[in-house]
Amino acid sequence: MSDGEGTPENPWTLRTAPGTSEYTMYRDGDELVCQVGATKLKYQARAIDDLHAWLVARGDWVPLGAADEQKPAADGTVEAFGRAEDNPVGGWYGLRKGYRGRFGMYLPPLLERLGLVELEHNARNNRVRAL
To answer: Which domain of life does the UniProt lineage start with (predicted)?
Structure first.
């Protein structure tokens, strides 16, 4: 992984939990911008602290459960938290309609890079827990 600073000029270079895809992420004001190939996803930047606090409260391993916006998220997963009506923002952390999903795929590697979580790196069914 890169020693990026998380800025538009020097983004973090990350890999999905299984290690199969590389992407970049940076903070731009109140937004996290995630560039995956030609696709740009945006999430509320407060997702970093909110997801970490939720994982701390869970106190154990939580499945990632990554899913596209159009597909339902499995209960109790990071993906479900990222779109739940009872999360701190009252719904989606994703900001770009049609691209609001995949919270469980792209946010946990960033939290790992920031030293906030432990993340599994298996071929499938990865989990995360707060440090």
So the answer is: Bacteria
- For the question of whether the overall pTM of this predicted structure is more than 0.85, the answer is yes
Q: If you write DSSP's letter for every residue of 106-122 in order, what string do you get?
A: HHHHHHHHTTSEEE---
* pLDDT, tens digit only, all 131 positions of the chain: 447 899 999 999 999 999 999 999 999 999 999 999 999 999 999 999 999 999 999 999 999 999 999 999 999 999 999 999 999 999 999 999 999 999 999 999 999 999 999 999 999 999 999 99
Decide if 103 contacts 94 (C-beta within 8 A): yes
Q: Are strands 117-119 and 39-44 parallel, antiparallel or unpaired?
A: unpaired
Q: Write down the domain spans for the chain.
A: 12-130
H or E segment to which residue 35 belongs:
strand 31-36
Residue type, 95: L
